[in-house]
Design brief:
447 residues, alpha/beta, 10-stranded mixed β-sheet, 6-stranded mixed β-sheet, 20 strands
Length: 447
């Protein structure tokens, strides 16, 4: 069965599930595989639970008593992605693709929030940004949506190429490129090449001659991104930043971080500079200025009015353990515990150093998936802590435990919780940051 025929079947049964525990009556089950599961083993159960059809890629998964309800394909994941792409092609709407090492989820949220001031927006939920999450996102598209914002993540070479060929974005941006997932990418150059696959795709779209396709929003202060765009001959672009580059259209500057970011922005073009707009945000970190400017650039491109843009950005409140401030009965917490890599960790520490807060304390967890660079990168962060005078720091995890540093060290989050129970910090401003697997997100409830 080819994809177009399969899509006709999907139109009759417009609900895809990959979980045999979630099988609405008349849905279609796709037997995906993971490191510890094989969906083919649950296909028959999915039919018993109410699915109308099961897509499998192992002949032995087919139950002869229900064989008409099984669809055998070569590769379930590939079929899943092609079916999602076919669904996406039913909607002639702009699709904004977003990737990057750091800030892509926050930027996705800000872009969607700005666009929602004027459009019915479908956006990636949470961090459904991989080769399963992106198709699931696309299947949420319906006839009411006027624009889509799709986040795309990567941890191996070729990941973004696969995702853009599924989502087919009409425009997009790379937030930045940094030293993350080095174990998978092999090197920083591998990171740049893979993230740059979004530029490759958008350049091709632009060359096809449609003025509404192939547009790139770019941080002109980022030398890596500018080099990547230049190497690819990217022409259709809207630049944003803080510098004096004459190509920058949307400019911004930090007013303060006390502790929330307040910033100004304005438009600089051939007609001169527009009046400066001032926005008070609910985000922690001066590094979020670029995420804000990216959202502004996208909003202006899609004709969202300036007052609407300011309203969206000033009212956005994070709720995903990213740049999130929480006040407990005892302390003020800056929770950024969803992910960590050398680039984002350094940015968080620079911002923490500059914040006008008393009694600063940092609880930092290991940065995972750095491969051979892990020891060097963890030592660099430890040295940065000493340089910045952040003496009240707790380091959590095996990699930080190997560093030559004077800070208190813990093997895991359970040891940290025991230390807090024994002598709870009081009246402190505490930065909590580490890779998700270190589980520092458990700490706010005990602080």
């Amino acid at each position: 069965m080819d994809i177009k025929k399969l899509y006709q079947l999907y139109k009759q049964h417009p609900y895809i599930t990959t979980d045999s525990r979630d099988c609405p009556e008349g849905s279609i089950f796709v037997a995906l595989k993971g490191d510890s599961f094989n969906g083919n083993d649950f296909a028959a159960k999915a039919l018993q639970q109410g699915c109308a059809y099961a897509i499998v890629d192992e002949p032995q998964a087919i139950d002869d008593s229900r064989k008409d309800q099984f669809i055998l394909v070569d590769d379930c994941l590939q079929t899943f992605k092609l079916l999602a792409r076919e669904h996406r092609r039913q909607f002639d709407i702009p699709v904004v693709g977003i990737t990057g090492t750091n800030g892509k989820t926050t930027t996705k949220e800000l872009v969607a929030t700005v666009l929602a001031e004027q459009y019915n927006v479908m956006a990636t939920q949470g961090n459904f940004n991989n080769d399963v999450g992106v198709p699931k996102t696309l299947f949420r598209l319906n006839g009411d949506h006027e624009i889509a914002v799709v986040e795309m993540g990567a941890s191996h070479p070729g990941d973004i190429k696969t995702l853009v060929e599924t989502a087919e974005p009409t425009c997009g941006l790379i937030t930045n490129v940094g030293r993350a997932h080095l174990q998978g990418f092999g090197s920083f150059e591998g990171v740049k090449k893979t993230k740059g696959e979004l530029y490759d795709y958008l350049r091709k779209r632009g060359e096809e001659g449609d003025p509404d396709h192939g547009f790139v929003f770019i941080n002109a202060d980022d030398k890596d991104l500018m080099q990547m765009a230049d190497e690819r001959g990217i022409i259709l672009q809207a630049a944003y930043g803080t510098g004096n580059n004459e190509d920058i259209v949307v400019k911004g500057e930090v007013v303060e971080c006390a502790p929330f970011l307040k910033f100004r922005w304005w438009i600089s073009d051939e007609e001169g500079d527009s009046p400066k707009e001032e926005v008070q945000t609910h985000l922690i970190g001066s590094y979020n200025l670029y995420n804000m400017l990216a959202a502004i650039s996208v909003g202006l491109f899609f004709d969202v009015d300036i007052p609407q843009i300011n309203h969206a950005l000033s009212n956005y409140i994070p709720s995903n353990n990213r740049s999130q401030l929480t006040r407990t009965a005892s302390n003020t917490l800056i929770v950024d515990a969803y992910n960590a890599n050398p680039t984002s960790m350094a940015a968080a520490l620079r911002n923490f150093r500059d914040m006008k807060m008393e009694n600063k304390m940092a609880i930092l967890g290991d940065m995972r998936e750095l491969g051979e660079a892990s020891a060097e990168e963890h030592q660099r962060i430890a040295d940065m802590l000493s340089e910045y005078g952040l003496t009240n720091t707790w380091l959590v995890g095996e990699e930080f435990g190997k560093t030559d540093s004077p800070f208190r060290k813990f093997s895991d989050v359970e040891q940290v919780k025991a230390a807090i129970a024994q002598k709870p910090p009081r009246d402190c401003c505490i930065l909590i940051k580490g890779s998700n697997s270190i589980r520092l997100y458990q700490l706010p409830e005990v602080l």
